[in-house]
């Protein structure tokens, strides 16, 4: 049997390779790291989480939680590994990123039908194939994809938030709490409260700080100035208005400072990066400020006076296809049967959605392998809704989307937000069960 190439051992490619192998298909999983690096990955393991360590909400009435339930029903392989490496994060599933990636790598390497090949793929191979090379697809492969699509991809920028050492924080100025949970013992986040004066000083500092110059290839790209709306750097948010951060990542709602018994004017939240709590991510603090400026401004905040940085914030190219023109809702290239795309490059956004897209592309490929027509997932499922968005959203203004009830056909019952979420969850579970019962691959 000729092995099926899967290009890129990120979240999508790792899940896809594993799905194919479990279906008895021989897989060559290509990963260019560590020989060729990306601007965001730090290690060489498969399924590395490049920025936040959160896979989103696991609450059953939220879109993220419904997607998790769907992935379980579809026998996803990466989700149980993520759950086995969970760190406390309130209603979210956050993972200890390094052991998670190591566990995925070990399982893939141990699989008898998967060969992990450390090599940069330069061109799209003929025949059955899954391309899951991510938002930082290498230049040579990007050119090959452009040749195939006959048109440019879209590019924009994503930003990474700083990560700090837990024992360098001054806990006297910090309180522990999860939003809306008054019991401090159960708080999963560290919170730095700011009064009005401290907040305004911080905003002024951000507005006056220097940013990195764009790299040559970035500066020459007219689309470089299009920031991804859902991942805006803090300095861009600050420039949009004095209160933007206070209503965004620094919102204090649901948090009470136990020392004053009051809601602070603004809050900086830190989320554990690992179980030992040795590293913390500044939630929503992605930034493109110069490194020295980041250190200076963040150390001027209470609790961070002597903070040590494990990683500073940064901003990178993010590449995705004009998918509605190119892909079907089974993630197959419209003009070439057997060629599938998965992951962020398709415009399916979010770690969990990317894992799901790898699963979906693999299930679709398995059907082609059996000489069957790939069957899309029900559009009432979160994963099916995302796939439909990718295949049918208006092009060329196509923008990536992450798990959201907004991508699904509306549910007709006029109920509360919670009941609405529960109704979407039930409809998804029922329709997916019917889909699987009808013999679609699992
Ligand atoms: C800077 C940055 C920050 C982000 N932050 C977040 C976040 O906080 N939360 C979130 O949900 N999403 C975030 N994303 C989006 C994130 O990339 C995805 O959610 C997820 O990592 C994508 O999974 P993937 O499998 O598509 O790509 P990746 O995980 O990037 O995997 C693609 C793999 O393909 C490899 N590769 C690339 N080209 C080749 C080639 N030619 N040959 C062989 N291998 C190749 C790469 O080395 C990589 O390992 C961020 C993206 C960027 C760029």
Ligand list: flavin-adenine dinucleotide
Low-pLDDT sequence parts? none
Strand order of the largest sheet: 10-11-12-13-9-14
At the fourth CATH level, what is the homologous superfamily of the largest domain?
FAD/NAD(P)-binding domain
Classified by CATH, the class of the largest domain is Alpha Beta
| Rg of Cα set | 22 Å
How would you sum up the major sheet?
A: 6 strands, antiparallel
Task: Please tell me the CATH architecture of the largest domain by its name.
Answer: 3-Layer(bba) Sandwich
- Tell me what portion of residues adopts beta-strand conformation: 15-25%
CATH topology of the largest domain: FAD/NAD(P)-binding domain
Described by the principal axes of the CA atoms, the overall outline is globular
What's the overall average pLDDT, rounded? 89
* Percent of residues in helices: 25-40%
Kindly state the number of beta strands. 18
Domain count: 2
How many distinct helices?
A: 13
Helix-strand makeup class: alpha/beta
* End-to-end separation: 22 Å
């Amino acid at each position: 049997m000729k092995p099926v190439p899967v290009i890129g051992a990120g979240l999508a490619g790792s899940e896809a390779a594993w799905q194919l192998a479990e279906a008895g298909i021989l897989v060559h999983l290509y990963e260019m790291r560590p020989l060729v690096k990306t601007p965001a990955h730090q290690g060489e393991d498969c399924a590395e989480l490049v920025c936040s360590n959160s896979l989103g909400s696991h609450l059953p009435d939220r879109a993220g939680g419904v997607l998790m339930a769907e992935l379980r029903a579809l026998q996803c392989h990466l989700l149980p590994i993520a759950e086995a490496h969970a760190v406390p994060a309130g209603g979210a599933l956050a993972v200890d990123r390094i052991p998670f990636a190591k566990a995925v790598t070990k399982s893939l390497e141990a699989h008898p039908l998967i060969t992990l090949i450390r090599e940069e793929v330069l061109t799209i191979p003929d025949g059955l194939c899954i391309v899951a090379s991510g938002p930082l697809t290498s230049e040579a492969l990007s050119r090959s994809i452009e040749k195939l699509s006959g048109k440019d991809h879209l590019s924009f920028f994503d930003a990474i938030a700083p990560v700090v050492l837990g024992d360098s924080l001054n806990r006297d100025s910090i309180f522990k709490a999860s939003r809306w949970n008054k019991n401090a013992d159960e708080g999963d986040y560290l919170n730095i409260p700011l009064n009005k004066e401290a907040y305004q000083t911080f905003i002024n500092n951000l507005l006056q700080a220097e940013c990195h110059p764009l790299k040559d290839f970035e500066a020459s790209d007219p689309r470089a100035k299009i920031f991804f709306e859902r991942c805006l750097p803090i300095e861009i948010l600050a420039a949009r208005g004095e209160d933007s951060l206070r209503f965004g990542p620094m919102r204090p709602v649901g948090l009470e400072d136990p020392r004053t018994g009051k809601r602070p004017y603004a809050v900086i939240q830190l989320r554990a990066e690992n179980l030992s709590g040795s590293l913390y991510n500044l939630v929503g603090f992605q930034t493109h400020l110069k490194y020295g400026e980041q250190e200076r401004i963040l150390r001027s905040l209470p609790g961070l006076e002597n903070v040590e940085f494990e990683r500073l914030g940064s901003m990178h190219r993010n590449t995705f296809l004009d998918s509605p023109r190119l892909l079907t809702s089974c993630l197959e290239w419209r003009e070439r049967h057997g060629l599938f795309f998965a992951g962020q490059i398709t415009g399916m956004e979010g770690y969990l959605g990317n894992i799901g897209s790898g699963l979906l592309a693999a299930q679709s490929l398995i059907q082609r392998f059996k000489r069957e027509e790939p069957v899309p997932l029900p559009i009432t499922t979160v994963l099916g809704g995302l796939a439909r968005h990718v295949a049918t959203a208006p092009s060329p203004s196509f923008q990536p989307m992450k798990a959201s009830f907004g991508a699904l056909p509306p549910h007709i019952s006029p109920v509360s937000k919670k009941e609405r979420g529960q109704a979407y969850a039930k409809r998804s579970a029922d329709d997916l069960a019917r889909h699987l019962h009808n013999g679609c691959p699992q």
